[in-house]
Amino acid sequence: MKKNIRNPLFIAILATFSLSEILEASSFGDSEPPHKKWRGISMRAGIGTVQDQEEIRKQQEEQYRRAAHKMLAEAAQDKAAVAQHVFAFKHNFLIPSWLRDALPDEVSSQLLNLNMHDVQLRIEGELSDKTRVTSALLRVNGLGEDLLAATMRPESRFIRLINESGFKQESNPLSIAKSLFALAMRLDEHIFLGITRTQAENMMGALYYAASEKVISTFDNMSDETIDALFAPEVLVDSYTSAGQLRRWAAHRINDPQKKFAYTVDSLKLFEKARGYASQTDFFEKIKQDQHFAYDLLEELLLKTSASEDSVKRFIASRHATI
């Protein structure tokens, strides 16, 4: 009779035998230890470990930091665009009131005087708003509406030339003198500034004269004794020589005949003062050379008057001989 393999007892015995074989093979037939062969499964709780929570917190903080930096960068970029537009408008079309006051009348009278209609340009606000405002200001002042095109006009070039000459508010007299001198030198570009050569030279003369005044303004209302006590000789030599040179250049450029003559005489007086503080050095020789140039200019001016040519030449020759 066939054995019934479905017999429950038979199945139980077979299962037991099979499990025993497996355990035996597992214990003796494999060289790897049980704890290596049967790996456990790491279970995580829903809230995570303390280490996991700390890592999540750091990731969130990094995300917040990046988001904040992005917002600040975008805001700064928008503000920079507004600031650039406002600066471009002011740099090309406006002269600060303190700078207008520092310039001689011959220059300030030639400047574009933009009607701002009480508009105060600041960097607060949107770029689109600033663009509309500046376009409107250009239009009502007869300069078109396009900012870039308007900057190519001679009036704008002249304003820009002055704004780029190094003037700074509340500067000391010597710094102002240097900026006045720099502006005078740059007026040789008159052909691009919408002014004639005669106008340019007149402005140059006024600027050189103003610069010479600034150089010696420190000594204003001081007696010679006070000046000698407060300043070193080399400082005085440099100051009086520089002022004399500037005054002579002013005489060369200015259009007014009376001012030409007066500035030339002033330069000679300043060179004489410089010689009084100079020792017998190369600088002393330079002052003497400047004096000769000034007397040559004086001769040229005197010859344009009704004075006798022979008398003028004798007089100038005698002055040259005393140097």
Would you kindly provide a written description of the structure presented here, covering whatever features stand out?
There is one protein chain. The protein has 15 helices and no strands. It is mostly helical and 323 residues long. It is elongated, with a radius of gyration of 44 Å. It is 69% helix and 0% strand. The relative contact order is 0.05. Helix 3 runs parallel beside helix 6 and helix 12 packs parallel to helix 14.
pLDDT average, as an integer?
Answer: 83
Number of helices: 15
Largest sheet: none
Shape: elongated
The helical percent reads 55-70%
Strand portion? under 5%
H/E series, N to C? Answer: HHHHHHHHHHHHHHH
Radius of gyration: 44 Å
- Beta strand count: 0
Distance between the termini: 155 Å
Enumerate the spans where pLDDT stays under 50 for 5 or more consecutive residues: 8-31, 34-46
The computed structural class is mainly alpha
